[in-house]
Design goal:
mainly alpha; 2 domains; about 60% helix
């Protein structure tokens, strides 16, 4: 909307938008100041979901994530945080290090066993921070 007032998106708007949408979409929205609805926001990648009960959706998503290995979630967070400013080789190297730490760990083994036995996992102590 800033373009309608002769300004540019601020508060890291451009930096955030470029990570969410293709360049042509970022340009079109930035140059036009066009307002989009939730369905289009999902379609172009600005939003992940639109629906009538976002709180229920968020709670279910949180429950689903909480059922996953906390070590794997923490590793995924680290890797995703690193990936926004790293080159492909550095990201692949980080991915390999994270996988090495996870493979064969108690929580990784429990995740596999729980999946095979079709039961909720009972995760234990977390791996130390990398």
């Amino acid at each position: 909307m800033e373009i309608k007032r002769g300004l540019l998106p601020d508060m890291a708007g451009i930096a955030l938008l470029r990570e969410l949408v293709r360049g042509d979409v970022a340009r079109e929205l930035t140059y036009s100041g066009r307002i989009i609805d939730g369905d289009e926001a999902v379609r172009v990648g600005i939003a992940t979901w639109v629906g009538s009960d976002p709180l229920a959706y968020a709670r279910e998503m949180a429950r689903d994530i909480a059922r996953r290995s906390p070590d794997a979630i923490r590793a995924a967070k680290r890797l995703l945080n690193r990936s926004s400013n790293g080159d492909a080789a550095a990201i692949l190297e980080s991915e390999s290090r994270e996988q090495e730490r996870l493979m064969g760990s108690a929580n990784q083994i429990e995740a596999v066993r729980a999946e095979m036995e079709k039961r909720p996992a009972g995760f234990g102590e977390l791996l130390p921070d990398a």
